[in-house]
Amino acid sequence: MSVEGLTKMTKIEVVVAGEHAPAVREQFRSAGATGFTSVSGVSGLGHNGYHQGRLLFNQQAALELLITVVPDARSGALIAGLRRLLEDSPGVMFVTDTYVSRPEYFS
């Protein structure tokens, strides 16, 4: 893969119950993330079995996937905060290196 001309950053994806999504968004903001993507009604198979993506009673009943991209220098504090959050609530976090074409959007 060629990444010439692109800027390396860190992508963080978090899957949590809808009721915990506001706390994840606050962690993103506190770490200086300039934006995020949120996908409601996520489904999948995990340690607690299959989770369906449909809403049961309200938005909080479904799983939500939140994604942000931050400069590497901001990722450590954000990851630490999210790890603390996930100690007390179910969910998973994925951290990957990514490359962006417009780094000014993320700083």
Automatic annotation (TrEMBL):
<protein>
    <submittedName>
        <fullName>Transcriptional regulator</fullName>
    </submittedName>
</protein>
<dbReference type="InterPro" id="IPR002187">
    <property type="entry name" value="N-reg_PII"/>
</dbReference>
<dbReference type="GO" id="GO:0006808">
    <property type="term" value="P:regulation of nitrogen utilization"/>
</dbReference>
<dbReference type="InterPro" id="IPR015867">
    <property type="entry name" value="N-reg_PII/ATP_PRibTrfase_C"/>
</dbReference>
<dbReference type="Pfam" id="PF00543">
    <property type="entry name" value="P-II"/>
</dbReference>
<dbReference type="InterPro" id="IPR011322">
    <property type="entry name" value="N-reg_PII-like_a/b"/>
</dbReference>
<dbReference type="GO" id="GO:0030234">
    <property type="term" value="F:enzyme regulator activity"/>
</dbReference>
